[in-house]
Amino acid sequence: MENNFQIKRDQNIMTVTGTGKVKVIPDMVVIRLGVLTSGDNLSSVQEENARISQAVLESLNQIGITDIATFQYLIDKIYDFQNGIRIDRGFSVRHIFEIRTHMIDMSGIIIDTAVSMGANLVELISFEVSETETYYLEALSLALTNGTIKARSIAEKFNAKLNPIPTRIIENTSPSVSPSRTFLREDIVTTPIEPGATSIEAFVTLEFSYS
Q1: Are residues 118 and 141 in the same domain?
Q2: Which PANTHER family is this protein grouped with (predicted)?
Q3: Where are the alpha helices (DSSP H) in the chain?
């Protein structure tokens, strides 16, 4: 958002924008991983997938990871084409789990444990902030202060007397979406993973009267 201002001389109204930013270290990790199996017989493919998936779940439970839910379960028919002719290649079963935990430092261990038990898909790792509202309110306070400082500076520049209380405040953002730092499948090459910092921002428009 541009840091601009507008003065309506006929109404003695000054409009400014304010911005605020807070850097936050994520406190939760979301991991999506799972098992892909394929073969000619659907029942056998499903059984193999269920066996490996159960082994993955049990191994994760053993290291204290219990917030696990099925994110996706798909059965697909596999086809190949040769000389324009479709050839049946069997079936594939894809079972993806979503894991949520505040033990961020265990992200690499979670993946290594699952892979050691047969998981062959790691789709996503997302580091998120659980208490977004608290940090957003801090950023909003900074945005209001930023806009007020601008208004004071402008008033001083033009020798105007500023009413310190805004006549109108427009909140241009909301903390509806938790900020995150996400690694997609192609980004995950090694298991030592650091969450880094993310930013929560707020933007406001303020109107002040002056004389």
Answers
A1: no
A2: PERIPLASMIC IMMUNOGENIC PROTEIN, SLR1258 PROTEIN
A3: 42-62, 107-116, 132-157
Q: Which domain holds residue 151?
A: 5-25+131-180+193-209
Residue closest to 164 by CA, chosen among 181, 177, 147: 147
Question: What's the confidence (pLDDT) of residue 7?
Answer: 55
pTM of the model: 0.71
Length of the chain: 211
pLDDT on residue 192: 56
CATH of the domain at 85: 3.30.70.2970
φ/ψ region of 160 (left if φ > 0, alpha if ψ in -120 to 50, else beta) reads beta
- In whole angstroms, what is the distance from residue 101 CA to residue 28 CA? 6
CB 93 within 8 A of CB 72: no
pLDDT digits (tens, 9 = 90+) for 120-151: 999 988 888 888 899 999 999 999 999 999 99
> What tokens were used for 44?
């056998």
13-24 and 198-209: which strand pairing? Answer: antiparallel
